[in-house]
Amino acid sequence: PGVLYLCPTPIGNLEDITLRALRILKEADYIAAEDTRVTKRLLNHYGIKTPLVSYREHNKEQMGRKIVEDILEGKSVALVSDAGTPGISDPGEDLVKKAVDAGVPVVPLPGPSAVICAVSASGLSTSKFAFEGFLPQKSAERRKQLEKLRDEKRTIVVYEAPHRLLKCLSDIRDILGERKIAVAREMTKLHEEFFRGTVSEAIEKFESTPPKGEIVLVIEGAGFETGGTRKVELSEREGINKIIL
Ligand code: SAM
């Protein structure tokens, strides 16, 4: 068979693509893209003329089967998502499962991903983190999910849409309590912004200037004394066992 290549693409800045990803995009028999218009812009920028097919949420069953068949017949396919690493909170996950089930070789290329980018610059603990993808869109369900995360000691990372940010932040404050948070917005783009502060400070800031663009939230894990009211333990990872502040 051929190969399914997972090709990370920029999350904003067109320069953020590896030499290897560009070569694979050039050499593949075709590229399976979430939104062919978005990917065309990238391909045009780099003068790549490989044919594109659309593989997205709405056709992932049927197209997924077709792509796996093509690879079994010897074709090599490069999978890209709209931005970042395919398979992370996008329909790529499904194609990789199908490929693995069919015994098709899956080769991942390292590259940009919004989650890693946000965590790395968050200023919060990066040694352990729990990636939650998108929280539920409806507040009641979101709050239920947050309840489950209340005692999570690792740093928590979620993707969020700008129009839900304020509601999501207030659910976070209600359920998880006051914590440090980093709001990573429009990373690698012209209006890149990192807000770092408490959840309340973030609410205050985004109430006065409603956010636009793409957002990753990085939330401090449970057990830190950010709210100033609870007595808590410092991270045991540091070897500072049970120091009570
Ligand atoms: N597979 C992608 C990855 O590895 O980054 C993530 C796909 S997910 C459908 C898209 C979400 O990633 C957006 O809603 C946003 O939360 C986040 N995101 C993508 N690009 C971003 C950027 N430049 N700045 C901040 N967040 C971004």
UniProtKB/TrEMBL annotation:
Protein name: Ribosomal RNA small subunit methyltransferase I
GO MF, any single term: rRNA (cytosine-2'-O-)-methyltransferase activity
Organism of this sequence: Fervidicola ferrireducens
Keyword Cell division in annotation: no
GO cellular component: cytoplasm
Major place of residence: cytoplasm
The keyword tRNA-binding is assigned to this record: no
Family the UniProt entry places it in: Belongs to the methyltransferase superfamily. RsmI family.
